[in-house]
Amino acid sequence: MSAEMEDFLKDTVNPKDLEKFEKNYRRELEANNVSHSTQFEYAFCLVRSQYARDIQAGILLLEDLMTRHADGKRDYIYYLAIGNTRIKNYTDAAKYCKAFLQIEPNNTQVLGLETYIKKKVDQESMKGMAVAGGAALVIGGIVGLGIALAKK
Q1: How many Cα neighbours within 13 Å face the side chain of 143?
Q2: From residue 139, how far is each of 21, 126, 147 by CA, in Å?
Q3: Using the 8-state DSSP alphabet, how is residue 8 labeled?
Q4: Are 50 and 68 in contact (CB under 8 A)?
Q5: DSSP state, 49?
Q6: How buried is residue 48: exposed, middle or buried, by Cβ count under 10 Å (0-12/13-18/19+)?
Q7: For residue 138, what pLDDT is reported?
Q8: Cα 57-91-47 angle, rounded to 5 deg
Q9: pLDDT at 71
Q10: What angle, 0 to 180 degrees and rounded to 10, lies between the N-to-C axes of helices 108-151 and 90-103?
Q11: pLDDT class for 7, splitting at 50, 70, 90?
Q12: Per-residue pLDDT tens for 54-110?
């Protein structure tokens, strides 16, 4: 499941689709009348962009929709989890997975995403411990060298 999730998270939006939905969104924004569906479609494309800045913009649009349009909350939460995972914001991604699973406890996609996030957090923790351990060895070596030189 993890390899499938990895592939799913790497899948990006077609730039022509992004451009099309952005034009729709901007047109409605200029008219001061953005529909929930237009904002969602644009946010959906943004969170699937290859660029972190686009993903963050999509997350903001989805968060806005969550506060103003309860009917789509399930979809908004799901793509908030996806977007946050794609930019490696695992804390928020896990929070959205938990919120989604309260609505739909047996959703296999979200359960798989939650498992993927936990693995990534564990990997990041191991990397952090390895870096800290390596830094301690370097400092210990420098201190040891300093002591050896001081004795001469």
Answers
A1: 6
A2: 53, 20, 12
A3: H
A4: no
A5: S
A6: buried
A7: 57
A8: 25
A9: 87
A10: 160
A11: confident
A12: 999 999 999 999 999 888 899 999 999 999 999 999 999 999 999 999 999 999 999
Residues near 109 by beta carbon (within 8 Å), at least 6 away in sequence: 78
Gap between the Cα atoms of 48 and 80, Å rounded = 11
Amino acid at site 143: V
Number of CB atoms found within 10 A of residue 76's CB: 26
State the pLDDT at residue 147: 67
> Would you state the structure tokens that stand for residue 11, as one six-digit string?
């899948």
Q: How large a percentage of the chain has pLDDT more than 70?
A: 81
The DSSP symbol for 32 reads: T
Angle between helical axes of 108-151 and 73-86 (0-180°, round to 10) = 30
* Distance separating alpha carbons of residues 152 and 148, to the nearest angstrom: 7
Signed CA dihedral, 114, 116, 119, 120: sign only: negative
d(C-alpha 72, C-alpha 82), whole Å: 16
Least confident of 7-16, 27-36, 135-144: 135-144
Quick one: tokens of 6? 């990895």
Q: How many Å apart are CA 35 and CA 16, to the nearest integer? A: 21
Phi-psi region of 32 (alpha: psi -120 to 50; beta: other; left: phi over 0): left
